[in-house]
Amino acid sequence: MRSILLNIAFAAYFLAMVFYFIEMFFRHKALPLLARVFALCAVVSLAAYTVMRWQIAGRPPFSNMFESLVLFALAIGLALLFVDLRYKVKNVSSLVALLGLLALGYASFLDKEITPLLPALKSNWLTIHVLTCFIGYAALTVGFVSGLVILFKKGEIATLDTVSYKIIAFGFLFLTLGIVTGAVWANYAWGTYWSWDPKETWSLITWFIYAIYLHTRFVKGWKGRKAAWLAVIGFLAMLFTYFGVNYLLSGLHSYA
Amino acid sequence: MSMKQTNVWKFFSSVKLAIWLLAIIAVVSLIGTFIAQNEEPAFYITRYGQYGYSALLKTGLTNLYGSWWFILLLISLSLNLTVCLLNRLSLKGRQLGTLICHISILVILLGALIGMLFGQKGYVKINKAQEAGAFETDRGQVNLGFSVRLDDFIYNENIDPKEKLLVYPHTQEGPDLKTSSSFGVGVLAEIPTEIGSEREIANTGYKVRILRYMPDFVMDTSTKEVSNRSAKANNPAIEVELKGKDGALQEKFWVFARYPDMHQSKTDKFNFIYNWVGRRPKDFISKVTVIKNGRKMISRDIRVNFPLKFEGYAFFQASYDTEGLNWTGLKVVNDPGVGIVYLGFILFILGLSIRFYISPFMRISQK
Question: N or C terminus of chain B: which is more exposed, having fewer CB within 10 Å?
């Protein structure tokens, strides 16, 4: 039952991406509608999967790489729908859908078995820390895609620039919440709110890059292409924080 | 010339400086994630050679985040923040959120400084039924003013669902457990290895029950006495009871995960395989009592994520005796700056919310 939901989500994500992509080249009323319906379908399937897994496992399904990737794909789907409905930037939607698809695709290669939580993860902070981090990550992903499109686009980029800024501001708030809840949790688990471990340090590096984005924007007037570069660099740091630290570095944080 | 006109003041009032400092701190912090921090000299010598290690040591790269130049960077950022705050920002509506954000960073750094200067952190190892009244820190031993007694240490494991006792007909070879191809083929019964678990073996009329589990089985060859040597799964074994068709007891014997040919069943009917996949820790619990002036004050369970707090000290479950479960290692912390850091966190989130959501919303609704 559960893997059917994942398969539906994957197919729906794929179709959403396809329709958003077609919409970039052809105008037809049905196209955006279909894309959104399939995106919503993907989000609902993933949400249903998450709820079911939570019930069966008896604990929040946010404890390893597989579970976090499913959450990431879900959050990206939500961000995608929000930005699409609010700002209607076609070029961005198809690429964001692709990234959500890739996250889900990667998840499909991982072990889906439900394992009990290690003692260090048995805390109420697990839910809030992981949720805030991934809502942040999803928003910053959309910010990255907007930035990327700005860099490749010739012509008017004002709307894209606004979308990029607003979603990055939102992402920055949630990244901050993620870091803060992580610090408070660390204080309960390990007696210290900050130990400069690779995961913590890289999340701070990511945070600094977006802080630089905001400062250069407000005080130096860096908009459009210049800001877009920072959005891309920030996303690369975010990717390293999420994946690089786990696979390339070692430390306390090697769960997800 | 007033203070605000000095070059030093002007230098620190620059946002460009802030951006540069953020970038430099980011890059430097990055280096510290690739060069392991605070490891033993041998660790660095193995990886970087003797000269490499000396170079790292001299430049402070082995303890980067505590080095003088990193702290200098943080101090510069704090000065930069302070001067900018005094110069540029005011309580005017639009700038309120920004002001709160920047003040909150200073609050966080202040809390961290207080913790660094006045906090204590260290470690204490307590044996079962014994008490400790002090703990070891970098700066020497610290007396608590009370003692903590370890009443008991409990270690629970999760049994993996794949851990099973497999029963095959005697004539069949057990599966090659290194490949999973023959796994389960021809198996008569799969018994979960929880103590007390009982199952019938297909239609044979025989029943199997799990009596005991030992992670590190050892038998005294002279007395034939069996015992568990340690808490480490060096030789996982389960004691099995096999009952015959009429319900009468037939025999009890041990089956070994690592020695599938050695099960001691004398009945020739079956082949028993103990499929071991490893067990994950479920809980580490230190059951302690705090004693002050000869009186028992409180008794608590210390687990990961649930420290004991008493008179400003917090005790965290950190390590334990993996062999005999006879001692617990607790991390002890007294950090007077934590509350201030948390206040800084709350202020920052508040400031950010005001800057991006509340102020703009108020401006829109005023129009």
Answer: C
| Cα–Cα distances in angstroms (integers) from residue B128 to residues A241, B153, B327, B329, B330, in the given order | 41, 7, 6, 11, 13
Do B25 and B73 meet the contact criterion of CB atoms below 8 Å apart? yes
How many percent of chain B have pLDDT more than 70? 93
Q: What is the pLDDT of residue A71?
A: 98
What is the pTM for the complete model shown? 0.91
DSSP assignment of B331-365 equals EEEE-TTHHHHHHHHHHHHHHHHIIIIIHHHHHHH
> How many Cβ atoms from other residues are within 10 Å of residue B157's Cβ?
16
| Per-residue pLDDT at A252 exceeds 80 | no
| Token duo for residue B82 | 């302070």
Tell me whether A196 touches chain B (CB under 8 Å).
yes
H/E segment holding residue B207? strand B207-214
CB A256 within 8 A of CB A67: yes
CB spacing of A215 vs B26 below 8 angstroms: no
- Section B230-256 average pLDDT: 87
Q: For A32-59, write each residue's pLDDT tens digit.
A: 999 999 999 999 999 999 999 999 999 9
Residues in chain B: 367
How is the beta sheet containing B270-275 ordered, strand by strand?
B189-192, B164-169, B270-275
Which amino acid is residue B81, in one-letter code?
L
pLDDT value of position A254 = 56
Do the chains contact at B349 and A194, CB–CB below 8 Å?
A: no
Mutation pick from B16, B304, B358 vs chain A, by most beta carbons of A within 10 Å, is B304
Residue located via tokens 């206040």: B343
Phi and psi of B332, rounded to 5°? -115, 130
Tokens, residue A135 = 């809502």
Q: Measure the CA–CA gap between A253 and A202, rounded to whole angstroms.
A: 12
Distance to chain A for B110, nearest Cα, Å:
14
Q: How far apart are CA B65 and CA B169, in angstroms?
A: 63
Q: Which two tokens stand for residue B77?
A: 């950022």
Can you spell out the DSSP letters for B120-173?
EEEEEEEEBT-EEEEEEETTEEEEEEEEEEEEEEEEEEEPPTT-EEEEEETTSP
Structure tokens at B319: 């390590």
Chain A residue nearest residue B33, CA to CA: A198
Residue B171, token pair as written in the block: 């004539």
Alpha-carbon distances, residue A241 vs A95, A189, A194, A224, B249 (angstroms)? 21, 21, 16, 26, 59
HEC sequence for B252-307? EEEEECCCHHHCCCCCCCEEEEEECCCCEEEEEEEEEEEEECCEEEEEEEEECCEC
What is the distance of C-alpha B26 from the center of its chain?
26
Distances (CA, A) of B288 to B154, B303, B310: 11, 11, 12
Are A13 and A100 in contact by the 8 Å Cβ rule? The answer is yes
Q: Tokens 């009982």 sit at which residue?
A: B198
How many CA atoms, within 13 angstroms, populate the side-chain half-sphere of residue B167? Answer: 26
DSSP B3: G
Are B357 and B140 in contact by the 8 Å Cβ rule? The answer is no
CA distance B313 to A153: 58
What residue type is assigned to position B283 of the chain?
D
Tens digits of per-residue pLDDT, A150-165?
A: 999 988 899 999 999 9
